[in-house]
Design a protein that fits this description.
- By secondary structure, this protein is an alpha+beta fold.
- Helices cover 26% and strands 41% of the residues.
- Strands 1, 2, 3, 4, 5, 6, 7 and 8 form an eight-stranded antiparallel sheet that branches.
- A hairpin with a 5-residue loop joins strand 4 and strand 5.
- The chain is globular.
- The termini are far apart.
Length: 130
């Protein structure tokens, strides 16, 4: 299952976006409304939103091109990648992508909530840095 967020243009250099996304604690400020729990660790974080199970993510590769979050659970195989493109010294284009391997039943249940989650993250980062 592949999902794609909308592209946004942020009025920040790519280095500032990388700094934001490489620190697990910073993801708390990007979470959508309904956040019930958030615990950051050195290499990732756990969170739960109202009406959703707890999700644990590990920080993967973080570079000036992308920041990757991977599922910390062996039972769920997915990645949330934020791709970054420096448009100028002061502007960065950002887009989120979700890639997961789910059976058709799970896919049907999680596709819309995941798309909404990505949209909410995109809206938050756009509000903070646009």
């Amino acid at each position: 299952m592949n999902l794609e967020g909308r592209k946004i243009l942020l009025n920040k250099p790519v280095s500032e976006i990388v700094d934001l996304l490489k620190d697990p604690e910073n993801y708390k400020q990007l979470m959508p409304e309904g956040l019930q729990k958030f615990d950051a660790t050195a290499d990732g974080f756990k969170f739960s939103l109202k009406g959703m199970p707890e999700i644990a993510l590990k920080l993967g590769e973080v570079s000036e091109q992308k920041a990757v979050l991977r599922s910390a659970s062996s039972s769920m195989d997915f990645e949330l990648t934020t791709k970054m493109n420096a448009v100028s010294d002061t502007q960065t284009e950002v887009q989120m992508f979700f890639e997961g391997k789910f059976n058709p039943f799970i896919k049907m249940m999680v596709e819309k909530p995941l798309q909404n989650f990505m949209n909410a993250l995109t809206d938050k980062i756009e509000t903070m840095y646009a």
